[in-house]
Design a protein that fits this description.
The complex is a heterodimer of chains A (678) and B (343). A seven-stranded mixed sheet of chain A has the order 20-23-24-28-27-26-25, with helices on both faces. Chain A is of the alpha+beta class and 678 residues long. Helices cover 30% and strands 25% of the residues of chain A. Chain A is built from 18 helices and 32 strands. Chain B is α+β, with helices and mostly antiparallel strands. Chain B folds into two domains: 83 residues; 234 residues, Bira Bifunctional Protein, Domain 2 (BirA Bifunctional Protein, domain 2, 2-Layer Sandwich). In chain B, a hairpin with a 5-residue loop joins strand 3 and strand 4. The radius of gyration of chain B is 37 Å and the shape is rod-shaped. Chain B starts with a helix and ends with a helix. The chains are: A alpha+beta (678), B alpha+beta (343). At the A-B interface, strand 2, helix 6, helix 9, helix 11 and helix 12 of A face helix 6, strand 1, strand 3, strand 4 and strand 5 of B.
Chain lengths: 678, 343
């Protein structure tokens, strides 16, 4: 909303300049964003709860209150003559809920022409294009008093009845913006006996508008339902200065004043005869202004300062409220504040903003000193985040939704995806069920941008899942388990994805590096199983993480220089383990510990897990087995290096004894697994 | 022998005097003090000298050695040699280190954690809620009217999943619903913050994203005043940006608070003088806040006559961008390492 200083000063007698007024308005709730037009016009950002401030007079009331001044009343003197207007037209409202009040005036024999310069300038200052003296007056009064008006060419109406009714289905209107709109019965229109002449409160028709040569004018000032105007305006994608005011709510008591003011101005600027009286229908006031009880103790309790009741009264009076009482005040709300002041808290806000919050002391709450709890999952995410960056992974954040191409990489059916009803540009309509697709995308994207051998990324975020439902709303199949880790009802949960590319590493090395990342974090060796093309890492049969490896150029549209590996960690499972896993101290062995390294060449068909079992269960003196190197370059088989830790809890072990065990262990392994030793 | 030594001494002094760089200096050091230097040879030959002269010559050799060595050391400490030359021990400490391989935390989460920590220290609990939210929690219980523009499909993402009342779920448009959820299991006094991801259906550009992060705060107790809110937020901003930052309070409007305010802070670049960054106003909009609306308190089963509270909300992306002077919000969600590795 633009506020020309000269127009403002027509209502309030103050000497302050634009800068000063801008500051005061800003600190009382009408933020001045800019001062334009050679410091003569303020551009104000008016909050939607203050429809009264979408007018010069409304803003003048604010300024007057801020400066302790009285606002000047407008003298309206309509020079009526001739026949009663009611003999020229009639008004009928078919839906009083959508139009509680409709007023019309008739002005005959006007001379349509250009408005005087001062009027045109004022309109330009408030961003309205001057058209002709009649239309300009309706706009001028709207900007000044906040009530939208409309003017029709009386001669272009069919008959002399104005009917406020709902539109017929597919009824058409060519509006003043030269666009054709197709209406429906939810929309309110102003019609003559044959067709719509205006979309009520939004825009008039081009066919009945006032143009050069118009002689007889019908002026309209009405009240329309806020919600209905908003819905119609949205449905038609048509907004106007008028519709935006009706949407926010207008002052019921300004209707007659506005139509009279406009009639008087038209008479002055365009001549003609203003017929006697206002033709009106409906009289209801949809918003009733009520009296609010305001306790001084609540004012003090919420604002935190001891304002006197005299000060409270003077503030409220300055804003147009009527106040009675002393400690418990009875406050009557003026008609122009009926839309936003309904509770005592609303009045407390009026007092606060007029006092200027910046002048109040700044305090801190007086509270019990509580040590706050921390959600285990929140803490887990934070720990994991710092652990991963410490081990060389960088954090990315990606969108929570993706497109069909990425959906295919998620490993989840389309029917398990929740989708957006209204995606932006239809771009990413599916909520992600996994962080995997975007991780692959970002690995690919960075590979294209940066020539590096190694990329290490991770993301922590929510994923969403819909349980598949059959026709009866039950799960599609009872046998079918919901997707791993998801409850049958489906919902959202936290996940972590870790992406790794290393040009110099084999697929196995990628797998083992990712596995090491989660194992070192958990502090437990997980068991692994292969399921299809994925590797699952489990603890006590619960899946903690899953690793997938994508050989080079296997995903369409994505480019890696070598294989990419991604691990997904199920944080909701991980947090359960962390809760259960309580460490207890194991006494440090009293007797010396002996370590022996074993270089084993294992044939391909033998799995490490078997070997491990055989070694650790071979002799109770073998307390620990640790893998410390793996080498593949042998042609056949894998060379692994193991460290065995021996000790006894009741005596000092002899080196010879250990060597003897090793000797027998080797023989046993050779026989059982066909391994050889280096 | 004596004159020979004196000659060497003289030569050395002259040569050292002319030495202008460390290479020459090192060469001279080898020439006069090295194992194959003349001095070393004389010292070796000392056994061939008459016994009674040995101590004198020996002392003289040592004196000459010591003197040359002292001059060389002194020269090495000289500015010109330190500045350009390799340091005396033979390796270049100006070569940068090979940094350990550490990753980078996303600047958004760095800011989230910083903000969380400021409030945790003041006794605030960190609470979270779902991102897929019902309209009841996202709007209704927060006193947002049925026909409020924020519910438009142009502003809110709706999904094809419905709640028990057959209303579509939405991607939460703010972290405020967490207030209501948290109060289902809590009674005043409460102090909590709710950080997390929120969504708006907007066309993306440098200033707008469909995904971004917010942090909500809520305090409910007896006698919570608006001055407590202003004091708390001032303290928060000073902890985050430093004690030189000032705040300004502007009345504003939010459906879930009454009275409602906005908090501006003095521009980080011009300290309130006015510059292009703050559109010459000297102030930057940072937080929305207010006293919890009595209707919202009632929805939390809290008696507004007995208790009062304040709530505030802030955009993490904006705070982060202001701090690092990032000019495009989309960079945060690009996954581009050239961006992330700067933090």
């Amino acid at each position: 909303m633009n506020l020309p200083i000269s127009w403002l000063k027509q209502f309030v007698n103050i000497k302050a300049g634009a800068q000063e007024i801008a500051r005061k308005l800003t600190l009382s709730g009408s933020e001045a964003e800019k001062i334009v037009d050679n410091t003569q016009v303020l551009e104000l950002d008016i909050t939607p709860n203050r429809p009264d401030c979408f007018s010069i007079r409304g803003l003048a009331r604010e300024v007057a209150a801020l400066y302790g001044k009285k606002i000047k009343q407008i003298e309206v003197d309509v020079k009526e003559s001739g026949t009663p207007a009611s003999s020229a037209i009639s008004v009928k409202i078919e839906d009083k809920r959508l139009c509680p009040k409709y007023c019309a005036r008739v002005i005959q024999g006007v001379t349509v022409g250009e408005s005087p310069l001062w009027l045109r300038n004022r309109l330009i200052q408030v961003n309205i294009r001057p058209i002709n003296n009649i239309v300009d007056v309706t706009n001028y009064v709207m900007m000044e008093l906040g009530h939208p008006l409309h003017a029709f060419d009386a001669n272009l109406l069919n008959g002399d009845a104005i009917i406020v009714r709902k539109a017929k289905d597919k009824e058409k209107i060519l509006a003043l913006d030269e666009e054709k709109y197709s209406l429906d019965p939810s929309m309110l229109i102003i019609a003559d006996s044959k067709k719509p002449v205006a979309i009520a409160g939004i825009m008039g028709s081009a066919e009945s508008g006032v143009v050069d040569g118009t002689q007889n004018v019908i002026l309209e000032a009405a009240v329309f339902d806020q919600v209905s105007i908003r819905k119609t305006s949205k449905a038609l994608n048509l907004r106007s200065e008028s519709s935006s005011r009706f949407e926010k709510g207008v002052d019921f008591e300004v209707v007659e004043e506005a139509i009279d003011r406009a009639a008087a101005m038209i008479f002055e600027l365009a001549g003609g005869t203003v017929l006697r009286g206002i033709v009106s229908a409906g009289s209801g006031s949809a918003v009733r202004t009520e009296s609010i009880k305001l306790h001084m103790r609540d004012v003090h309790r919420i604002l935190g300062v001891n304002v006197s009741s005299a000060k409270v009264k003077s503030i409220l009076l300055s804003l147009g409220f009527e106040v009675r009482g002393k400690d418990a005040l009875l406050v009557r709300v003026p008609s122009w504040r009926a839309h936003d002041v309904k509770l005592s808290e609303d009045l407390i806000e009026e007092i606060g903003r007029m006092l200027d919050y910046n002048t109040l002391p700044k305090t801190l709450p007086f509270v019990e000193l509580i040590s706050p709890r921390m959600e285990p999952l929140h803490k887990l995410r934070r720990d994991l985040r710092h652990y991963l960056t410490g081990t060389g992974y960088s954090e990315i954040l990606t969108y929570s939704f993706y497109n069909e191409q990425l959906l295919d990489l998620s490993g989840m059916a389309k029917s398990n995806h929740i989708s957006l009803i209204n995606p932006v540009n239809d771009e990413y309509p599916y909520l992600r069920t996994s962080l995997l697709p975007w991780m692959l995308d970002k690995l690919s994207q960075n590979s294209a941008l940066l020539s590096r051998d190694v990329f290490q990324l991770f993301e922590i975020g929510k994923v969403f899942y819909r349980a598949e439902r059959g026709n009866q709303g039950r799960l599609a199949s009872n046998k079918e388990e919901p997707a791993r880790g998801w409850p049958a009802s489906g919902r959202e949960k936290w996940q972590t994805s870790i992406g790794l590319i290393d040009v110099n590493a084999t697929d196995e090395q990628l797998y083992r590096r990712l596995r090491g990342v989660v194992e070192a974090f958990v502090g437990i060796e997980l068991s692994a199983e292969k399921q299809g093309k994925e590797y699952n890492l489990l603890l006590l049969k619960r899946e903690i993480a899953r690793i997938k490896i994508y050989p080079k150029a296997t995903i369409q549209g994505m480019r890696f220089r070598s294989s990419a590996a991604v691990m997904l960690i199920n944080l909701e499972e991980l947090v359960k383990i962390q809760k259960k896993e309580k460490r207890t101290y194991t006494p440090i062995p009293y007797y010396p510990v002996i370590e022996r390294d074993l270089g084993v060449i294992v044939p391909n068909m033998v799995q490490y897990i078997e070997l491990k079992k055989a070694i650790t269960s071979y002799n109770p003196l073998i307390k620990k087995l640790q893998l410390f190197d793996v080498y593949h370059g042998l042609g056949k088989g894998v060379s692994i290096a193991l460290r065995l830790t021996f000790f006894s809890t009741d005596r000092t072990l002899e080196s010879k004894e250990v060597d003897c065990i090793i000797e027998k262990l080797r023989a046993s392994l050779e026989k059982k697994y066909k391994v050889t030793f280096r | 022998m004596k004159s020979k030594l004196e000659k060497i001494h003289k030569e050395a002094l002259k040569a050292l005097k002319d030495a202008k760089d460390s290479d020459t200096l090192e060469k001279l050091e080898r020439q006069f003090l090295g194992r194959k230097a003349e001095l070393a040879r004389i010292a070796k030959d000392i056994k061939n000298i008459a016994k009674e002269q040995r101590p004198v010559i020996g002392k003289l050799i040592n004196d000459v050695k010591r003197d040359i060595s002292a001059i060389i050391q002194e020269k090495k400490q000289g500015k010109e040699f330190l500045a350009k030359g390799r340091p005396p021990s033979g390796w270049d400490y100006t070569l940068p280190a090979i940094a350990p391989n550490v990753g980078h935390l996303h600047p958004i989460t760095q800011f989230l954690e910083t903000i969380e920590d400021i409030f945790i220290k003041m006794g605030y609990e960190v609470v979270e809620g779902p991102e897929l939210e019902s309209q009841k929690y996202n709007f209704d219980l927060l006193n947002v009217p049925e026909d409020h523009p924020s519910r438009d499909i142009q502003d809110t993402f709706y999904v094809d999943k419905k709640d028990a009342r057959n209303n579509s779920y939405v991607l939460r448009t703010h972290t405020s619903p967490v207030q209501i959820r948290a109060m289902k299991t809590r009674k005043p006094p409460v102090r909590l913050i709710a950080p997390g991801r929120v969504y708006r259906n907007e066309r993306t550009d440098a200033g707008h994203e469909t995904n971004f992060y917010q942090c909500e705060g809520l305090v409910i107790d007896r006698n919570i005043r608006i001055t407590d809110l202003i004091g708390t937020l001032e303290l928060f901003i000073k902890r985050l940006y430093g004690d030189n930052v000032n705040i300004r309070v502007r009345p504003h409007f939010y459906p879930f608070t009454e009275p409602s305010i906005d908090i501006d802070m003095s521009c980080l670049l011009c300290a309130g003088e006015g510059c292009p960054f703050c559109k010459r106003s000297g102030w930057i909009e940072t937080l929305g806040a207010g006293m919890v609306h009595p209707n919202v308190l009632k929805n939390m089963k809290v008696d507004p006559k007995e208790y009062s509270g304040f709530a505030f909300g802030l955009g993490i992306d904006r705070f982060m961008m202001l701090y690092y002077q990032v000019n495009d919000i989309r960079l945060s969600y690009s996954g581009d390492l050239r961006f992330i590795e700067q933090f």
